[in-house]
Amino acid sequence: MTRTPKTKLIPALALAFLVVMPLLLATMPIVKASGNTPVLSVVLSGTTSTTLIPAKSVGSTFSVDVRVDNTSGVSPGINSYSYGLTWNPAVLNVTNVNDAFNGSFLNSGANYGTVESLGDLPVNNTEGLLIIGDIILNTSDFAACATGSGVLTTVTFEVKAAGESNINLQPSDAGVAYLTYPDSQGNSHDIVANTVNAVYVSLTPSGSEIGITGYKLVFNTTLANMFASAQSINYSWTYQVYEYNATTKTYSITVVSAATPTVMGYSVATGTSTILSGEKGAVLPTTLSWNVWIEVLSIFVYTLNGQTYTLAFPAALLNVHPGDITGAPLTFPYLGAVGSVTGLDLHVLAIYWLQTVPSGTNPTSAIARADIGGAGSVTGKDLHLLALDWLQTWTKTPP
Fold it and tell me: In which band, very low, low, confident or very high, does the pLDDT at 274 lie, cut at 50, 70 and 90?
């Protein structure tokens, strides 16, 4: 389709054009520019291709850029654009729209003219809709345009509630976004641009368990991955351990403080995944008595797509005493399950006598519980520790 723009009518017609733009795009014929097809994309602000945006806490903000790329096949260049942007209004609100700013794509060609708004409609946070557009105007050169790649608009969102949201260029069903290129006669030609949308999703730690295997603290957390694919993260736990003072009934003696957490890599599958620290757990001092209670404060830190997220878990009260190793079933995270140390525990230990505990074994497994001393194999040391607790009963609450 070919249009001849009339510069003096643009301000008056702009609002009407934007109102009917979605209908026009669905019905009017469109001429595809020769060569490579331009791409309009929604990306995390400051990047050129990051379209998966990790969820943030309610009240936080983040920005996306609507940018244009792959314009080398469009001659002489781009002179206007207009598009709709949609999102989930139950999850996100738009708080700011920075359009045609200094240094933006169209302004890179501003020496050929001035950039004028096509009459942007007000942000509709009720429907989750933004309609926006700009054009380069030059009465002495209708072929004025911008070339290359760059940002058209930066949109800032505030997180209204937990959840997911597509951030889509519209009308996405036809894969059409509105771009034009001029010819020397002042005629503007519409372009079919490929579109790339963004997704605001979360990879959220949703609970933590801390257990004791021998003299090791073992951390677990479950992550919900709502991305469409597995995600690579680097993670670590920071923690502090306090010993319970039975006299004052407070946890005031620092036992362990991890000054330099061990950072580990992990691929989190779609859905839910459990991350287990395993042998990387905190090591308790061997001087710590096996008949004490401790309080553990833990913080899970992970990095995804260059952003760091931190989640502090409530303090966990743990019985360091091995107690009833049969666990019927053992109630994680308490190694000392409800019950008493009897011949049944001796039977469990005998089953695994002199066996080695495989690396990475779940700390709640029977063989891991039988390795009371945490030496990596079931030996006389474990028998000795079990004998110290013979016929004693342990509960899940501090004394």
Answer: confident
